[in-house]
Each structure stands twice: as C-alpha cells, then as structure tokens.
Design brief:
Length: about 400
C-alpha cells in the first residue's frame, strides 16, 4: 500500500531551526538569492530535519545540519535534503512522483511515443527510502526528507560500506519490504524480516539517474538486492506483455510494475494489479475515517478503467464487483463491530532491531510525527529483538463510537 498517508503526517511536523543554516553558502550552492533562502526558512518551506533522539552517539549534532524542502522550489523537488557540513553542501534530491497509467495501451503509446522500447520492472510494495552516505555515515531518508531512525538502522545493517566507500556521490533509491515494517508490512515476498531492494541509483546534487541497465549492473557488482527485471519490450509488444505480467503478479498478490525508458530520459509510469488495489482498500477501510478520501476514490476508479480495457465478460465483471465490494465493506463492518463491542481498533505492525536503543528513539520519532502508538515489550529472536507496535487510529475509533451512541453523521 502506498505511503501517502504517512507522508501527510510527516509533513505536519513542526520543526524548529536551532542550528543556523549558512545562508550565504546555501544561496551560493543552490544558485538562489539569499533573500529567497531567508523567505523559504521564514515560510517553513525549508526546515531543519529534527534529530534529537540521536544525541546518544553525537548524531544529534551531526544530523541537525540537514534541512529539508517541504515543497518543491524552482527545480528542487519536495523531500530534497540539503546537508551542510564543514562549510560545504550536498543535496539529496527528492524522489520524483511516478504517474499512473489508467488504460495501459493508450498510456504507453502516448507517454513513450518518442522511444522504441520500454523496460519493465516489478513495483514492490513497501516504502520508499533514499540511502546516502553523508560524511561517512549512512542515512535513510523518507519520501518527505526526514531521517527515519528505524530505516537508517536497518540500512546500516543491510548495506555493506563498500558501495558508499567507492561511490560517496551516489544515492541508492529503493523499497524497504517485508513483515518487520512499521509502514507497509507485507509477507507476500520472500523476505523474512525487512530488506532493501534498489530500483534507482542517482547522483547527489543534480539527481541525475543511472541508465537502467548500468544501474542494474552496478547494483549487481555490489551484491545489492534489486527489484525484478521482467524484460525490455518493443512498444508494439509492451501492452500484451505487461498485461500478461500483471495478471501473473496479481495471482500472487504482488503490486504491479513500473515501466521505464532504459535511457531514463522519459519519466517512468506505473501500473498495478487489481488484487493489490483491493488489498489496499481492505486495509484502508478498517480505518475509514483516518485515511484520506482520495486514497479510496482513486482506487475505485482504477478498477473501472482496468475492467473496460480488459473487455471483461459478465462473469469476470461480477467477480471484480464482488471483490471490490468485499474489500470495502467487510473490513469496515468488522471495525464497527469491534468498536461497538468496546474494543479499540488499531493497526498492528512490528519492527526488528539489534540494539534496543533504537526502539526508544523510534518511539520518540513517531511521537513527534503525532502518530499515536503503543509499543509492546521487546521479545528476543536470535540476536535481535522484535517489538510489536499498535498504531491507534483515533479518528475512526472516535467517529465509530459516536455513531454507535446515536450521533448523526
Ligand atoms: P508517487 O508520488 O511516486 O506516485 P506514491 O507514494 O503515490 O508515490 P506509489 O503509488 O507506491 O507511491 O508509487 C511510486 C513508488 O513505487 C515509488 O516512490 C517507489 O517507492 C515504489 N517503487 C517500487 N518499485 C519500484 C520500481 N521498480 N521503480 C520505481 N519505483 C518503485
Ligand atoms: Mg508504494
């Protein structure tokens, strides 16, 4: 399921700027006027990345020199992070939005009309993380440009240093996937805990991406996990090939594909399976009053377009309607029943750590993001600890409770 919801919460953080940004240096580096930088700071578009929790190992001082863009500014994407260090700067560019094909055939023809072939990769369902080395430390940035302590800890464990030692100027963009996942837990992949799958490698500062095949080669050389590559197809073959892949992925509950220009000049587009769409709805309708309405609406519309493009028979259409209806109504009914019976509904997720210190840092991080949670006592598994987290969906609980007491909508 996508991270849009988390992303919204993250943007609601009210960071404070207590380490001074070198405005003159930043203006020079970003090729902006000093007054523009000041304006961005005043309007809280350029915000200090909050990192209090890390003071334990002096990271506080270190990470507090990061500033994130809460909105796109000129050519700098939302979620970009400006790192100030020893009088010099680095910019980790925000990960660009990927547009969606609603009707696969026409979208491919229209969007990729200037090229001959497209490459198809699996779209994995987890959460987006950009991993970079800043002054010898690996940091994992969320979509909004925050440094997630859990993801950073996992990235430091999962990725060997050699890639960054030899390529300090590169950013690994990938999906954090697996069950020990506080944002999008899934056990549909062959991942025991949490793993990082690379789908892009970009340069710091200008954000220039590696060409697709060069990126796959480079990731392979360092033994990094990568998203599955399904092949490169001519534009004539692509619609049928991708439809075939989508039907297969749907059967195993996987999410879909991202279709890319191998030269990475034209922006990629995404296309997803109905099953994953319904799984998203099923999860979201449990917490119907906490999730944004666009989230539901866009997913219902997708079903309409896919059904038309696939020219479905009456029987197939009935199956789709039933599936869509069930993924909306059943979880919601379950939630209403629970609240009516006096149980609070919550989203159950879990994290796995080696160092228990990370748990309290992560707890504080979520608190700062106004995510209401209950952390369970750590259970040890092997040389690690598993911590279960209940995310309380206050709004759905309150709304349902008041409806049960007879209040009007
Ligand atoms: P966006 O703003 O990019 O649409 P979103 O939060 O709405 O993001 P999604 O609908 O999940 O997210 O689609 C885009 C995301 O898919 C990317 O941000 C990335 O995290 C994820 N992704 C998974 N696999 C791939 C892949 N092979 N190539 C590119 N992105 C991928
Ligand atoms: Mg996603």
């Amino acid at each position: 399921m996508k991270t849009a919801h988390t992303f919204q919460i993250m943007n609601a953080i009210s960071d404070t700027v207590d380490i001074k940004l070198d405005i003159e240096g930043a203006a020079d580096y970003l090729n902006m006027s000093q007054s523009k930088i000041k304006r961005l700071l005043d309007r809280k578009i350029l915000l200090q990345v909050w990192y209090e929790g890390w003071s334990r190992d002096r990271s506080q001082q270190f990470f507090q020199r990061f500033f994130r863009f809460d909105k796109s500014v000129s050519k700098i994407e939302q979620g970009s992070v400006l790192c100030q260090r020893n009088g010099s700067f680095e910019l980790i560019r925000g990960f660009p939005k990927i547009q969606r094909a609603m009707l696969l055939g026409p979208a491919l023809e229209n969007h990729f009309s200037k090229i001959k072939t497209v490459a198809v990769e699996e779209k994995m369902n987890g959460y987006n993380v950009r991993v970079a080395d800043i002054g010898g430390r690996i940091a994992a940035f969320t979509r909004g440009g925050l440094i997630c302590p859990y993801s950073t800890d996992r990235a430091q464990n999962l990725l060997k240093r050699d890639f960054f030692d030899q390529h300090p100027d590169l950013v690994l963009c990938g999906e954090m996937v697996g069950p020990d996942n506080p944002y999008v837990p899934k056990d549909i992949y062959d991942v025991e805990s949490l793993d990082f799958f690379v789908f892009d490698i970009r340069h710091k500062n200008n954000g220039k991406p590696y060409l697709l095949h060069e990126r796959r080669k480079l990731a392979n050389e360092y033994g990094l996990n990568q998203v599955t590559f399904f092949g490169e197809f001519s534009l004539d073959d692509a619609p049928d090939e991708i439809t075939r892949i989508i039907r297969k992925l749907g059967k195993v509950q996987h999410e879909g594909v991202v279709i890319k220009d191998p030269q990475m000049k034209i922006a990629p587009i995404k296309y997803t399976c109905s099953q994953s769409n319904c799984a998203d709805l099923q999860h979201a309708f449990k917490f119907y009053n906490d999730v944004g309405r666009d989230y539901f609406f866009s997913r219902v519309v997708r079903e309409g377009f896919q059904s038309v493009e696939w020219n479905e028979s009456e029987a197939e259409l009935q199956k789709r309607c039933l599936q869509l209806g069930e993924s909306i109504l059943r979880p919601m009914i379950e939630s209403i029943k629970q609240v009516k019976d006096g149980t609070r509904i919550a989203d159950n997720v879990q994290i796995r750590v080696r160092d228990l210190g990370i748990v309290s840092i992560y707890q504080e991080y979520l608190r700062r993001l106004s995510v209401d949670t209950i952390f369970s006592e750590p259970e040890s598994i092997g040389d690690e600890y598993l911590v279960k987290i209940k995310k309380i969906n206050q709004s759905t609980n309150d709304k349902t409770e008041s409806m049960c007491k007879g209040e009007l909508w």
